[in-house]
Amino acid sequence: MPTDGYDLRHHGDQEVGDGLVDLAVNVRTGTPPPWLKERIAASLDGLAAYPDGRAARDAVAVRHGRPAGEVLLTAGAAEAFVLLARALAPRRAVVVHPQFTEPEAALRDAGHAVERVVLSGSDGFRLDPALVPDDADLVVIGNPTNPTSVLHPAADIAALARPGRTLVVDEAFMDAVPGESESLAGRRDLPGLVVLRSLTKTWGLAGLRIGYVLADPARIGELARAQPLWAVSTPGLTAISACVEPAALAEAAEAAVRIAADRGHLAARLREFAGLEIAGDAPAGPFLLIRLPGADVVRERLRDLGFAVRRADTFPGLGPEWLRVAVRDRDTTDRFAEALGKALAG
User: Fold this and answer.
1) What pTM, to 2 d.p., does this model score?
2) Which residue in 110, 117, 113 sits closest to 141, CA to CA?
C-alpha cells in the first residue's frame, strides 16, 4: 500500500543505542518510580491465574468520571489503533498529520484506504477543522500531537464530531500537560468520540504496554470483540490501577509542571542557535520539533557526540530538515546544547 515514501513503522527507540543519551524517546526519565515497581513486582505472585481486568477498568472509570462500560483496557495505545482498524469499516478514513504514524499504519494493514490532512508548519501546525472533509466517517488526530508538540484547543477538535463519524483523539501525552486543559476524556456528549490514553510515557512503562480507550458502550463492545482474550497482563492491570489512584495523579501533575519548566529551558537553549526553528507557537508536549538546515547530517554528528535525537522525516508532512528532541532535565539539556553547537559547527 502506498505511503509516499514515509516509513510509518519507524519509532524513536530505533534511534537509541549503547552509550547514547536518549533524546529520541518520549518516556519520562527516572521512571517507573520505586513505589510503582514494588506494586508491579508484588503482582507476580498472581501470575498463575488468568488476568481479571475488572478492578483496573473500574479505577479508570472513576478517574475519568465515566461508567465502567465506557472503558476498554489495552496493551498500550498502539493496540487500540489495531482494534479500531479491525472493528471499523470506514468509507472515508482521514488521518490528520503530522502525527504518530501507527494509526495510519494499522488502517492500511487492515486494508483500509487512508487520506491525509496535512497541517502546515507555516501556521504552527494548527488545526483548521474546515480542512477535514465533511463526509469523512473516521477522523484520527493527536492532542497534544506527536511530533509537533502542538496542543489543539478542545473546541476545535470537538467541532469535528458529528453523527455518523468516529472521531479518534490520541491523548497519549495529555497527562504531561499541566491541568490536561484541552482533554476530551471526560466528554460523553460528543457523537462518535473515541479517546485513547497511554500510561507508558509518564510512568516509564513502555515495556509493559498499558493504555485504555474511552468511548460509548456500543463502540467499546465492538472493540472488545476484536481484542484477544486477556490482552493486558496481570502486572499491567496492577500498573493501570496504581497509575490512576489519587496519589499517582498528583505525582503526574507535579511531573507535568516540571516538564513544562524543563521544556522552556530546552527551548531557550535551542533559540541560541541561528537558523534553528522550533515548531508551534506554544509547544505543550514533553518534546520539541525543530527545523534546521542539514538536520540529517547534524543528527549523525550528534550520535558521534553521544546524543540520540529522533529523525522526523518519517512523519507525513515533514522532511529531512526536521528533528524531534525529548525534554530532559536542565543539566542534560545544557550538555546537549553544547554538543549541538559542535555538531552545527561540523
Assistant:
1) 0.97
2) 117
